[in-house]
């Protein structure tokens, strides 16, 4: 190889040895290999990870579609760019003298090389855009199934709007955007010395690009009428009351779109002819006509909407409102909802309570938010354990159907002491959480704490947990290595720690080349060289369950509240709901952004120990589900284990969307629907001392005409701007009835108290509010729990737990009172059973009579033993009780407690009355059952006197 240096004495040849030439090529090749390796490393490790979960087919399907689209996008953008640049250069070469051009344009090989480079860069950009945005639309388009239903205007199957129309719009907009880019490039190039006036080649180039743009505009206008079926926008400034085709769309916008499409084609032909003939001024004519017609179309739409539709809107929109109503119901699966009448009677009796003992026994006395604090303080035992969430579910415990709270005790190594945050500890030793806590929803201890069904380490209680280790969960886990030479920490036991080893084979083997690949991927040199890692070691990758399912199937929308399930074999799995959504369902009102169709057709389970993921088909008839099954046949599991199916929960998010839409779309009368006369909304409640919109909640009920209690997700309704309860919606969760939605309507001619009305009545009750205020002033915080409406046969009970929490960082919220509201009556007692007993005495005379009869029998003096000193004892009781009341009124809790202790001792000795559960929280108004018993005993004694 020879080159010339630039010396003044003439060119001097410098010779390079061929050996150095080959070294250069080798270095270049090595650099290219390294770059390719870095770019492909992620793909290789992703494939290995997906293959370890048996989802390699999903990975290859997505990757192959992206590669094909990337190639197509690269060719389209690169070829178009090169063609444009080549035509521009040719026009320059024809129009200018070579002496007038830059030297680079005259060097053919060099300029071709530069144009190829620029085209490649634009091609890479286009490749990224098309494969990134278009792969899912393309796969859906190629594999879609029919909905079996057509729209009422164009008579097209719904699948056209959901799958075909988005794909066509994507193609048109990509090509239109690319063409506009080329046009701007050409305008800039041909503005030099006004080439667009003088160069025939430049004019032809501009004409060709304008022609393509015109055809694409025409195609866009042809698609616009179909888009009117999924929007309420009738022009740039106005919206219709109808979602979907409206009167203005039918009269103006649809014909306007076809007219503009025709004008765009005519405009294209006109401009090409004008440019060929050199009549540049006439090019402006079709553009002006097109823009003018577009403006006229907008104006016509505004005029029709203002002067024809608005004065008589219901009459004009009536046929379109009917489609809006029926298709929105179909999109949200509301058309199968069964409506029933609820009398809202005040018929609560002791017999009714006994008939519905399963419902009564499952009334929730705890809320998940304060319960999470309790779990984290009483059931973590070490700083590195953490309960991330508390879930609600139902189990058969000793043959009884019971609703429970449960949470996973997960590991959070960020809370390890700083000296313990070594590479070995964080990657090899501290690898998993351990066990769970489970508690009754309806039982609390005398101290107001949850009554546990599972607790401690190892888990002990009502069921066997055979595999309590939690390697995969909700925490932001790092990847860890198991089966190394380091024993894994399992759980603390006294002063020692119990160790374990991972016994599954679901991780990524670190033998052979895998160790190098994943060490590079993790950026961990220690993983590569550590003698603690062996060929038997496994890498547990992507341990956060949300990240895990999103990495496997990113095309679903996942619920953000996974919940824990203990299977029959004692293993623990996470359950997660996946939503399938669409944005172009005709005539359907959107609930979020442009999304106007939703189904929960897929349930996902993630084993907390092995990390195995299963996607179960929950709604096989859903067309979106069938389309995804066509795309990814290896993704789904059709056979659902019974112990998994038994814990399917209807998701709160889906139910909230459906219930919200039904608040409007329950109206079947079109005029009522148009005026929104009977609009229902979610009620408000006081929760954690703030007024907030009530969320749906799970409860256990026995529905009318049913023999057993069921797990129900429900929400009350109130009318717009009113607080009385107008209806409630529920959905069944058990067995073959899963997903059945029903609505109970209350009579409109009389008031049925709504949640906020009950909250206001609690606030206005002088005795309850006085007691709550006293607690607040005593250095504690009063926390109002969720107010639950509990339907029982033909009546409704309201229940609200009251928490007390002292004002310090280590305090625990404790359930100290339960408020029960029924009809016009409100009682507050130490627990639900006492509150219900007091309520029944008020509303059920038979119960009160029986109670009085029992009291009279108990109060009869023993004739065999004379009453000695009764008058003096009664006077002493009376004086002590007056002192107790005065201490309470002044807020002297310590003195009140001392007096109550003295009263208890006297009562135990003389009357054998049981001691109260929480004497320091009793008051003189009878809200505390013990105080009531004391005063009642006084009254009885006085009566005896």
UniProtKB/TrEMBL annotation:
Compositionally biased residues, Acidic residues: 849-860
CC annotations in GO: extracellular region; plasma membrane
Polar residues composition bias: residue spans: 928-938
Principal subcellular localisation of the protein: membrane
Pfam families assigned: UPF0182 (PF03699)
InterPro entries the record matches: UPF0182
Keyword annotations from UniProtKB, A to Z: Cell membrane, Membrane, Transmembrane, Transmembrane helix
Keyword Transmembrane carried by entry: yes
Chain positions covered by the region annotation Disordered: 844-865, 901-945
UniProt keyword Transport, yes or no: no
Annotated compartments: Cell membrane
Domain of life: Bacteria
TM helices/strands, residue ranges: 22-47, 67-89, 110-133, 160-185, 206-223, 257-276, 283-308
Membrane association type: Multi-pass membrane protein
Similarity-based family: Belongs to the UPF0182 family.
Name by which UniProt lists this protein: UPF0182 protein FH966_05690
């Amino acid at each position: 190889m020879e080159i010339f240096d630039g010396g003044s004495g003439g060119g001097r040849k410098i010779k390079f040895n061929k050996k150095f030439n080959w070294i250069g090529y080798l270095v270049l090749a090595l650099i290219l290999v390294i770059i390719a390796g870095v770019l492909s490393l992620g793909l290789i490790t992703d494939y290995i990870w997906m293959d370890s979960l048996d989802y390699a087919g999903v990975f290859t399907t997505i990757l192959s579609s992206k590669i094909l689209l990337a190639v197509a996008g690269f060719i389209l953008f690169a070829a178009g760019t090169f063609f444009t640049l080549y035509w521009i250069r040719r026009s320059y070469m024809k129009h200018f003298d070579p002496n007038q051009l830059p030297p680079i344009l005259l060097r053919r090989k060099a300029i071709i090389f530069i144009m190829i480079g620029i085209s490649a860069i634009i091609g890479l950009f286009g490749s990224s855009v098309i494969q990134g945005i278009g792969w899912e639309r393309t796969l859906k388009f190629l594999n879609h199934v029919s909905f079996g239903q057509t729209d009422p205007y164009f008579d097209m199957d719904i699948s056209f709007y959901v799958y075909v129309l988005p794909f066509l719009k994507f193609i048109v907009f990509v090509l239109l955007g690319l063409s506009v880019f080329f046009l701007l490039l050409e305008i800039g190039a041909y503005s030099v010395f006004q080439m667009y006036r003088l160069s025939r080649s430049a004019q032809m180039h501009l004409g060709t690009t304008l022609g393509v743009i015109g055809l694409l505009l025409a195609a866009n206008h042809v698609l616009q009428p179909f888009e009117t079926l999924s929007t309420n926008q009738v022009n740039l400034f106005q919206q219709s009351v109808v979602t979907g085709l409206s009167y203005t769309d039918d009269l103006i916008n649809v014909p306007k779109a076809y007219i503009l499409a025709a004008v765009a084609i005519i405009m294209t032909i006109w401009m090409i002819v004008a440019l060929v003939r050199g009549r540049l001024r006439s090019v402006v004519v079709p553009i002006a006509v097109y823009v003018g017609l577009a403006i006229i179309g907008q104006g016509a739409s505004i005029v029709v909407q203002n002067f024809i539709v608005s004065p008589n809107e219901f009459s004009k929109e009536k046929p379109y409102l009917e489609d809006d109503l029926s298709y929105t119901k179909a999109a949200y699966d509301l058309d199968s909802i069964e409506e029933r009448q609820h009398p809202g009677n005040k018929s609560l009796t002791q017999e009714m309570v006994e008939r519905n003992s399963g419902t009564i026994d499952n009334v929730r006395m705890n809320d998940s938010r304060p319960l999470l604090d309790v779990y984290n303080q009483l059931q973590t035992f070490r700083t590195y354990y953490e309960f991330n969430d508390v879930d609600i579910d139902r189990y058969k415990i000793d043959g009884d159907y019971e609703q429970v709270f449960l949470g996973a005790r997960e590991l959070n190594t960020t809370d390890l002491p700083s000296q313990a945050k070594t590479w070995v500890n964080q990657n090899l030793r501290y690898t998993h959480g351990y066990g769970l806590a489970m508690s009754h929803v309806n039982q609390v201890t005398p101290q107001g704490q949850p009554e546990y069904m599972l607790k401690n380490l190892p888990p002990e209680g009502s069921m066997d947990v055979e595999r309590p280790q939690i390697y995969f969960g909700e925490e932001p886990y790092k990847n860890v290595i198991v089966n190394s030479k380091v024993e894994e920490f399992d759980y603390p036991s006294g002063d020692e720690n119990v160790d374990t080893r991972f016994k599954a084979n679901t991780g990524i083997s670190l033998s052979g080349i895998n160790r190098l690949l994943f060490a590079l991927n993790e950026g961990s040199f220690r993983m590569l060289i550590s003698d603690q890692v062996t060929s038997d070691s496994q890498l547990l990758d992507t341990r956060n369950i949300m990240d895990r399912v999103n990495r496997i199937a990113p095309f679903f929308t996942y619920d953000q509240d996974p919940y824990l399930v203990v299977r029959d074999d004692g293993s623990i799995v996470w359950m997660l709901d996946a939503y399938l959504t669409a944005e172009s369902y005709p005539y359907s009102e959107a609930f979020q952004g442009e999304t106007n169709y939703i189904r929960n057709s897929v349930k996902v389970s993630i084993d907390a120990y092995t990390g195995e993921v299963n996607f179960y088909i929950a709604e096989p008839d859903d067309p979106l589900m069938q389309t995804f099954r066509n795309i990814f046949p290896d993704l789904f599991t059709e056979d659902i284990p019974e112990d998994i199916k038994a814990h399917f929960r209807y998701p709160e998010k889906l139910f909230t969307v459906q219930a919200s839409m039904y608040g409007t779309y329950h109206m079947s009368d079109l005029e009522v629907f148009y005026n929104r006369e009977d609009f229902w909304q979610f009620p408000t409640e006081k929760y954690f001392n703030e007024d907030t919109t009530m969320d749906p909640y799970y409860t256990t009920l026995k529905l009318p005409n049913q023999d057993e209690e069921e797990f129900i997700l429900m929400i009350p309704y109130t009318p717009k701007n009113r607080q009385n309860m107008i209806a409630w919606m529920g959905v069944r969760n058990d067995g073959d009835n899963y997903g059945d939605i029903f609505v109970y309507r209350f009579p409109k001619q009389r008031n049925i108290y709504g949640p906020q009305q009950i909250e206001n009545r609690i606030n206005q009750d002088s005795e309850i509010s006085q007691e709550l205020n006293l607690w607040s002033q005593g250095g504690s915080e009063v926390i109002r729990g969720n107010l639950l409406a509990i339907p029982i046969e033909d009546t409704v009970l309201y229940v609200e737990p009251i928490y007390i929490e002292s004002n310090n960082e280590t305090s625990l919220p404790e359930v100290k009172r339960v408020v029960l509201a029924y009809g016009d009556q409100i009682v507050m007692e130490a627990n639900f059973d006492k509150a219900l007993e007091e309520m029944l005495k008020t509303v059920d005379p038979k119960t009160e009579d029986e109670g009085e009869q029992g009291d009279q029998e108990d109060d009869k003096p023993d004739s065999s033993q004379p009453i000695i000193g009764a008058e003096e004892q009664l006077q002493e009781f009376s004086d002590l009780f007056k002192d107790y009341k005065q201490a309470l009124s002044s807020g002297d809790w310590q003195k009140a407690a001392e007096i109550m202790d003295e009263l208890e001792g006297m009562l135990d000795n003389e009357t054998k009355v049981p001691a109260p559960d929480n004497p320091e929280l009793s008051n003189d108004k009878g809200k505390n059952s013990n105080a009531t018993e004391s005063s009642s005993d006084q009254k009885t004694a006085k009566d005896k006197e």
